[in-house]
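Entry 14: structure prediction run for Poly-gamma-glutamate synthetase complex A. Input pasted below.
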Amino acid sequence: MLKRTIYVIGVIFIVILSLWSIFFVSNQMARTKSESQKAQVLETTKEEIVEPIIPKEVTLLFVGDIMLTRGVGTSVKNNFGGDFNKLFENIPEIKKADILFGNLEGPVSDIGNNVGSKYSFRMDPSILPTIKNAGFDIVSFANNHVGDWNVNAFKDTLLRFEVSEIPQIGAGINKVDAETPVIIEKNGIKFGFLGFSDVGPAWMEAKEGKAGILLASDPRLPEIIQNAKLESDVLIISIHWGDEYKTTHNAHQESLAKIIIDNGADMIIGHHPHVIQDIGEYKGKTIVYSLGNFIFDQYFSKNTMRGMAFEAKFEDGILKNTESKIITLNKKYQPEGIFTKEEIKERDELASFICPKPDKDYADMWLLPIGQDVSLPDVTYIPKDLRELDTYSSTKKGICLIKEARDSFESMVKQAQEDGLIIKGSSGFRSYATQKLILATEIKNGNPNAEIAVAKAGHSEHQLGTAIDVTGQSIQYMSASKSFEKTNEALWMENNAQDYGFIESYPLSKESITGYQYEPWHYRYVGADNAKEIINTGETTIEYLESLQ
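Run finished. Output tokens:
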């Protein structure tokens, strides 16, 4: 009996153990399968996650003729202490381009002899670090001035380019060197550059064993371009061509452009006319016929004192967008900034007007206490009787005041002349648009005090036709300059202006009252009686005028 009982218990134990083993193995297999399935799901998920492809954008900026000698060199010496870097301080944005290009109009050397004419150029070698610092990645050296100081200066320039690590195109120590394109790779895209001159000099043509430049008249032009294209994803041809001072391209330029594009060029960048020419297109390829001047001393016309800044944006080697803007030069041959065509149009219109007339009747505003907190009731306000100052009383044409103020200012100028001083007005009436532009320019130039240095449009005394900025001979008629404060002309104004109805609007230490910084040059016409009363009371102009309301 006992044996049977033990036997039964043993059988039951074995059955239980077997069932437990089966359960354990099944559970492990299920867990393994589950983990395997999870791994497969994760792997599938990883495969499905695709990183977004970000287009590789490259921005190219092209500017025109660069000539840093003659009048430009003299200006840099007289105005900037010989520092050529100052020429570029108003246009720091050119450095933002991935590739910056310009045409260098002449050799950079201190050797050679002048074999050209009175228009021969040779730039001091010290300008090359300036070109580099300004952000230029490549320059064209195929133009009609490269031989002005003979072959020695030309070869010396090529060597200096190499030492300065400034790539140049269109020129070489021999024909093979000149034909070799410069390749600049950006974001995996090879941008090839090649340069030609269509205006000589023929005697400077590069040949086997002879230094020189590539000429567009070369019968191998198609082959040279085709070979360059083989090395480039995007091939840009720079060419010196066209008629000087003509604002539209000629038939020869157009014909040559077609040949260049038919043989592989993706874009043509032209220069030489010294003025901006039109932009064309052939087979979907852009042709910039002339960039005009970038920095040059051709002061004799508005067109030669400005040039094009042509921007081209490529994505993955495909041209996606182009934009042309305008660079203007000041009297120091220094670029003032880069402007849109709309901004240039507005500047030109403002510069050319002679005393605008109102198109409706306005209430008389000449004694309005206008300022930071008081604006014109109608921002389109134009006084009904604006008159232009005569040439003896103004620094330029188009400076206008209301007739009473104009007559009084001219009388004051005559008296100052009799006293041995020359005083002139440098700014008078301003429209709403002009005032808006001046403030916007100050803000764009980074002036942290712009809104206390320049009134908001609609809040300026200049819009009343009664305010004038005064300057004098002793500071060479600089406009709105604090250096006027210490002059004999400024002292004369302080002692005599009230007799002619003018009063200083923004005197020293009154900023908290006037809302504007001290401006020793800024006077407002309020009439002789009011001006003398302001002097007697010691009030500011705005305090006195507010008391009259």
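Notes: The domain at 57-340 is CATH 3.60.21.10 (Purple Acid Phosphatase; chain A, domain 2). Will compare against the previous run tomorrow.
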